[in-house]
């Protein structure tokens, strides 16, 4: 009797395209381990295009060097976290890593670098770099960000001791700026010019997220225009006058803005309705359609909400995350104010069943989901 035929190795007989698709769905660790499956899989991860090089927290720099030397294909994502205590041995390598990645085929996106770049020279001319995420980076004075294909930039820093410098970023579409202490070091606290000069580097973006500076500075307007800006998200406080002035200055210079999101960090309003009304100029926000406000512990800026309802002619929705019971009759205030847009609705998330109101003007809707 003939012996049974050997079992078919289906994993080894898969088409090359399917092998590569499987590898691109795996973590870096699992992709490397597939070399043990069979001859068809051996070292295949080293040449596959689109592999995500995401290194877990605590990965030694030597391991990153080894992976970059062995993997010659295009990279879809590069993520590496280095703690400040370990940064001295890795600082000179960061530039080499980014240069090596920028020369690969395929799309390269630096998703996350959390590192002290004291010895780094910056990000210069990476032709394929499209996404850059810098978290708690302390950039020295000669650090420059320049990438001709960069589309998305996120800067997060709780305390910056140096100024950021930028080269050409002609393709930048999205910027998320959380540098609340920016320019506090080395400038008089009342001088806002440095921050506005910094903000001007993002005047071409279509979507901007900005955490307003916590220190006090004077502002007399924004000396440039956000021509392309469609969506603006501001983390701000209405009990700081410079936050209010910065918000209105940006709104006045964003003629094509369609979506405004306000995230309140603290309760309180320092400005009266007359002052807020005086900040609104003719022709301001002509294309604004959606306003979303996230309350601070249930507190909402009712006078600002009334201003939006009375001034924005194309407004479709003004949505808030809750209807606060602590403020005096907020619904009556909004119902009795002038509404500039016939299509305007005010949307509350919570407590709708406890309140009697005209449902032709108000409707229930969940608050927008937080950005992933």
From TrEMBL:
Residues 8-42 form the F-box domain. InterPro entries: F-box-like_dom_sf, F-box_dom, F-box_SCFL_complex_component, LRR_dom_sf. This is F-box domain-containing protein.
């Amino acid at each position: 009797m003939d012996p049974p035929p050997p079992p078919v190795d289906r994993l080894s007989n898969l088409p090359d395209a399917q092998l590569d698709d499987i590898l691109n769905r795996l973590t870096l660790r699992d992709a490397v381990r597939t070399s043990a499956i069979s001859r068809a899989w051996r070292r295949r991860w080293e040449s596959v295009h689109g592999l995500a090089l995401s290194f877990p927290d605590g990965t030694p720099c030597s391991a990153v060097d080894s992976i970059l030397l062995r993997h010659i294909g295009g990279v879809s994502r590069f993520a590496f976290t280095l703690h400040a205590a370990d940064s001295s041995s890795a600082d000179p390598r960061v530039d080499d890593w980014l240069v090596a990645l920028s020369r690969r085929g395929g799309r390269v996106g630096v998703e996350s670098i959390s590192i002290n770049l004291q010895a780094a020279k910056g990000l210069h001319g990476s032709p394929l770099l499209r996404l850059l995420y810098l978290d708690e980076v302390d950039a020295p004075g000669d650090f420059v960000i320049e990438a001709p294909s960069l589309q998305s930039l996120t800067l997060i820093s709780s305390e910056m001791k140096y100024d950021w410098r930028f080269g050409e970023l002609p393709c930048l579409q999205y910027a998320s700026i959380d540098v609340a202490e920016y320019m506090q070091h080395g400038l008089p606290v009342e001088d806002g010019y440095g921050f506005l000069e910094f903000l001007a580097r993002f005047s071409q973006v279509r979507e901007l997220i900005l955490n307003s500076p916590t220190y006090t500075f004077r502002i007399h307007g924004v000396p440039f225009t956000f021509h392309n800006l469609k969506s603006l998200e501001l983390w701000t406080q209405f009990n700081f006058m410079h936050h209010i002035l910065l918000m209105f200055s940006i709104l006045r210079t964003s003629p094509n803005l369609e979506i405004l999101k306000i995230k309140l960090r603290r309760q309180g309003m320092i400005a009266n309705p007359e002052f807020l009304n005086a900040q609104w100029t003719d022709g301001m926000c002509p294309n604004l359609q959606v306003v979303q406000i996230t309350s601070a512990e249930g507190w909402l800026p009712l006078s600002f909400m009334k201003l939006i309802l009375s001034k924005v002619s194309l407004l479709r929705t003004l949505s808030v995350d809750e209807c606060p019971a602590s403020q005096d009759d907020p619904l009556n205030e909004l119902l009795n104010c002038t509404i500039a847009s016939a299509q305007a609705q005010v949307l509350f998330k919570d407590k709708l069943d406890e309140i009697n109101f005209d449902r032709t003007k108000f409707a229930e809707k969940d608050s927008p989901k937080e950005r992933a």
